[in-house]
Amino acid sequence: MAQTNPFYFATRDIFEHTGVPVDVFRVTHTDDMPLHAHEFAEIVIVTGGEAVHRMFEREQLLVVGDVFVVHPGSSHAYTQVDNLELTNILFVESLLDAWVDQDASPCGGFLERPSEANAHTFPRSVNLSPEQLVRVDAITREMEDELRLHRAGTSYLVVACLLRLVGELIRHCVEQHHESDHTDRQLGRAYRLVAERYAQRITLSDLTNVAGMSESSLTRAFKRSSGLTPIEYLIAYRVRQSCRLLQYTDDSVTKIAFDTGFSDSNYFSRKFHELMGLTPVQYRRQMRTRTQRVYVKDSSQWRVQYRKSSVRRLDPRSGPHQEQ
Fold first, then answer.
1. Rounded to whole angstroms, how far apart are CA atoms 310 and 292?
2. 181-287 architecture in CATH?
3. What confidence tens digit (pLDDT) does each residue in 257-311 have?
4. How far apart are CA 271 and CA 287, in angstroms?
5. Domain layout of the chain by residue ranges
6. Is the pTM here over 0.85, yes or no?
7. In whole angstroms, how far apart are CA 205 and each of 100, 132, 199?
8. How is domain 7-178+290-323 classified at the architecture level of CATH?
């Protein structure tokens, strides 16, 4: 993909409305996102769906749990989009200058900035387990709440959350970097089976067969990688998928439970509460009172509209680049 004439997002367009050099965007892409760049840095967290990420004429498949950094001026695009849900943490990159020692490379390459030597290197990514994703999500929601309330000390607390988030991601990146490549490939097959068939019946035997590992070896590998057993991971993945349906559809809790692989709605509600800290109904109500941001095309530029909505219901298939 030729990197010419990308859409460009300027710092002033993003941070001017709050005066804080950090912001959080939750976006659902139902169409491809064209080549674009920004004046600021961006941490991208994939929370649903999948797509192909294109950068420097290279591409990488994105799945749930993937996290990577896009540095200022780096043009990139999303293609082959399938309801791609992203949490984007936008920030002025100089905020991290006092903590990042480029020479010591303390972050396993996760925050490595482009240079003459690596100007066209694809950004290093980390894949979070459902448990890790929930922990990271809690930090981003704390940032959102601070930005929404905008009280005394908001700027300091939001930057502190950004540093906590970066610290968590660096730790996961370094830990994954040291894992066995062979085990990663085996686990990857099991993770892929969950991602592709989570709505169907999946047994522990299914996972061990596709990974080519014994039950005990697979369980140890899952625990080491995600902190969860294979079945706990499957349940957590199904719960994460149910979040999208609760937010963007009017389907009943029972239907959503069945559509995400649960055979009992009461069991689904119990597991949902354990992982999310809210009942499915409470989660749906909370998500529908958040600020809705919509990417819209104005002339030849993409810009962001801010809309307040307390009960607006969105269908992720109804239009491009929506988030509530």
1. 9
2. Orthogonal Bundle (1.10)
3. 999 999 999 999 999 999 999 999 999 988 876 544 444 444 444 444 444 333 3
4. 19
5. 7-178+290-323, 181-287
6. no
7. 44, 25, 17
8. Sandwich (2.60)
